[in-house]
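Board notes, transcribed. Complex of a protein with PMV.
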Amino acid sequence: EQTWVRLVTAQTPTNIAVIKYWGKRDETLILPVNDSISVTLDPEHLCTTTTVAVSPSFDQDRMWLNGKEISLSGGRYQNCLREIRARACDVEDEEKGIKIARKDWEKLHIHIASYNNFPTAAGLASSAAGFACLVFALAKLMNAKEENSQLSAIARQGSGSACRSLFGGFVKWIMGKTEDGSDSLAVQLVDEKHWDDLVIIIAVVSSRQKETSSTTGMRDTVETSLLLQHRAQEIVPKRIVEMEEAIKSRDFASFAQLTCADSNQFHAVCLDTRPPIFYMNDTSHRIISCVEKWNRSEGTPQVAYTFDAGPNAVLIARDRKAATQLLQKLLFYFPPQPDTDLNSYVIGDKSILK
Ligand code: PMV
């Protein structure tokens, strides 16, 4: 009996929020309580590569993450698979003699192999790149003819922040108004060429896995923090407008001020949660002080900092000169100490040190 395999490979970088998403108004559909804005990293660093395959010889859907088989039974994977399958179209690959009719996709099974080019355990956002890449690769495999914004609303159901990784450059996740989440999707604000002076450096403060998952943390915050309500209703809507303006006009002073303030407010909201959530540690706080002091002494900001659900610092320098100075400061104040919690090595463009 003749058999065949059709393969598609995609690569997706992770993204870092400069106006944070924290809190869901619907946990199943993953609908947020506020808009958010992020920057997508370049694909060289922190990216996921996913190959999806279909063959009549596969008897069930299966997935391997970094070479180890993982279960696809979770609701998040099932939602993404179901949504793409519902949009599958006819596929005809004359070269390989493959013909798949739209209705065949209901019976055919998929194999997925996904790799992160960074340590998954390093506490760096991996689900964002992972679900974006999975949804994009599946859409290509099944010839789903959706725009990236439409695909982002599917990736969102895997992991909220994943919807922003369907685009490069600066991206806004619009929270949406509808109950079914069809208008909760990502749009590109500017592409990656718009502000290419910026240099992003990630200081890995601790490679330990975070103690509170974002899902549990958000749930506790939504249920107990009054500060979150104030943030979502009063603060973020204004900040989103100001941030879009700062990005469009490449106004680094405003960009840095908004980015740092929003990171600090996100961590304040975590502290306002019952029980309180501590994502940053002493080293994170020392990095903040170091950047704040430097920015003040220069008179105009050189670097913005932002921290996600963990202690690692994401530092955005205004240009290569500032990035070089920043790296020198980091290596001086936080010399790499392997095997300790103070291991602040740097992922990024090391060539700028030369
Ligand atoms: O998409 P999740 O569940 O991994 O949540 C991400 C939350 C933050 O990284 C802290 C903020 C954000 O907007 O990415």
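The chain has two domains: 6-190, 199-353. The first strand starts at residue 6 and ends at 13.
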